[in-house]
Amino acid sequence: MKLPFLIITLTLAALLAAQPSQAQNAFTPDQVKYGPAPPFLPVGAQLAVLEGDPMASSGDFTIRLKMPDGYKVAPHTHPSRENVTVLSGTLKVGMGDQFDASKMMSFGSGSFAYLDPSMHHYAMASGATVIQIHGVSPVKFNYINPADDPSMKK
Fold first, then answer.
1. C or N: which end of the chain has fewer Cβ atoms within 10 Å?
2. What pTM, to 2 d.p., does this model score?
3. How large is the average pLDDT for residues 62-72?
4. CA angle at residue 141 from 61 to 36, to 5 degrees?
5. What's the fold here for domain 32-152?
């Protein structure tokens, strides 16, 4: 009776070991790997890619952005809808072509918002803040004032 059990166990172990490795599709917080944010975002934030390729010409993506207190993103738009969930901290968001902190709304942990491509908006972290963004690639920031684009600064 022990021999058939051993054979089944070894067969299952061999099948599992022979499976091709696949992209990770579930994460615990300690498995999320952050690196520097891309150059189109101001220095100081960290970005983690959870799903897809945010820079691809098409396809779904999910990313996390970790921002220090006071981190600001100048007024901009995106070519596709941006879906944002605040995981920790507070994200302040304003609408319009000029950054005006007095006109910003605060979104605490657990908040969700989506911003359509035509929406001119800007953001700031209040306290250390982590947001999760999902949408359709490519991720692109179209700054209202081209001088605000950090990738153009040397």
1. C
2. 0.83
3. 98
4. 65
5. Jelly Rolls (2.60.120)
